Each structure stands twice: as structure tokens, then as C-alpha cells.
Amino acid sequence: MAISMYQTSIPQFTKMLTNLSNILKKGEEFAKAKGVDDAVLVSECRLAPDMFPLSKQIQIACDQVKNGMARLAGVEPPKFEDNETTFAQLQERIAQTIAFANSLKPEQIDGTETKEIKFSIREWNFEFVGEQYLLTWIIPNFYFHVTTAYAILRHNGVEIGKTDYLG
Questions:
Q1: Topology of domain 5-166, CATH
Q2: What is the pTM (predicted TM-score) of this model?
């Protein structure tokens, strides 16, 4: 029996977003214990000068889920302002993303394997079919940004490990 598009995506996305939320809690606790302003870890910390900061990593991870799954389901994704500067605001974004993902039903996602997906990001235009979109765009991008958010916090001294990432 093949795994469905829904089972390949929503349960794993919500699990990893929950893990990301727990990792962020540890980041917030670390900041409080060390007397570090949220804004420093959230908006300034990054792995390399040309990489996005923690806030943008989390925004993009959430966007992969909400925008990607909305395209597959044929529904309008929630709109977020991309203006989070605190751990609490990032937690709210994750919670809203999980709520949206959980609002999608298997019948909205399953059967979209051959659905045409077209979108643009700035000057780049993309064309996929559903299964290719999920497996080669949404999932790898999601994990890249979740992993990078984890790495930013770990690099800055937050005591997190593989079990925090995997949940």
C-alpha cells in the first residue's frame, strides 16, 4: 500500500512544527537566564552573514506548510505579516500554521499527485505537479529552514539536541 499525499505531509509537518515550538521555548528560557533580549536571538542571530536570521527561518518553514499545502488543497492560505520579533510572536505563527494544517482534510490533499502547481517568487517562476511539488519543493525547503532554526539556537548556546529536534 502506498503512503498518501496527506500522510506524507500533514502529520509530519505538525509534529516537526511542534518540536520547533519546543525548541523555541528552550531558546526563550536560555535568553531569559542569560539576560539576552529576545530581539537579539530572534532577529539578529544567523549562521552566516548572508543567511536569514532565526525569525525568517521560522517564517519560511511555516510558509512552506501553509502556502504549499494550501496550493495542493486549492484553498487560500492564511496571511501572516512576517513581522515577528519575539519568541512569543514566533510561537503564535507556529500555532497558527499548525491550526491551518490540521484544518485540512485528507480528501483535500490526497489525489493531488498530478495537480498542476504554478507560482512565482520574485522573478522566478515555478511549475510542478503535486507529488513532485510536495517531495522536491515543500518537504526539503521545510526541513532546511527547521534545521537552520535549530542550528542557529544551538550555535548560540541553547542546550538542545537531536532528541529535541526529533521530538
A1: Four Helix Bundle (Hemerythrin (Met), subunit A) (1.20.120)
A2: 0.96
